[in-house]
């Protein structure tokens, strides 16, 4: 923040579209003094592109933990359950937002008329025309190259960061599930099926490679879906990892 751009405003009027420093008073009533400032004020530098889970975990969660005024009617157990629910909400929201951009779109077949792509009878007729069949095979090969790149990404070794944990793993498999689910839906589209129908009618050798890739995509999707479901259950047992420091975790508090 430079002196030229420094502005002070209430949170309700804060322009949350640039780098900002927020100060939140977690208590109300008594004045802020040098003695209670550390427990009363939570400060965080934020940007509008900050992930939601990071915002909740690094800013709102510490403020809620230090707060006694608005949560004083809750007993310690209820307050702990509320904080746990907030953490889980942030994790699920973060995973959902990460999945939004996980979409695969097959490239369009510009050299083939839409009538052929949408009609199975016209697709069969096109398979007997060498020029049209060549365009259909080129389109299928382009799709197969695109699918192969997606599969290669799966086969690559994934790098883990020092902050990786159960939540990171759940989000990873949810993202992969979403990505390959979108790819499977496109492989079931009418245009794709008609291209494959024309290739089968012409006894094209590309159909064998297509079938192999199709089976691999389905297997990757099933694996990702099952892993996401299993890890979602396992992550619930790892709450202490997000609520406490590792050195203070009591293993007896983890119930299976």
TrEMBL record:
InterPro entries documented for this protein: DHC, Dynein_heavy_tail
Signal peptide: none
Membrane-spanning intervals of the chain: none
GO molecular function, one term: dynein light intermediate chain binding
Organism expressing this protein natively: Schistocephalus solidus (Tapeworm)
Annotated ranges, domain Dynein heavy chain tail: 135-243
Pfam families per record: DHC_N1
Any one annotated GO CC term: axonemal dynein complex
PANTHER family named in the record: CYTOPLASMIC DYNEIN 1 HEAVY CHAIN 1, MALE FERTILITY FACTOR KL5
Superkingdom per UniProt: Eukaryota
Protein name: DHC_N1 domain-containing protein
GO biological process, one term: microtubule-based movement
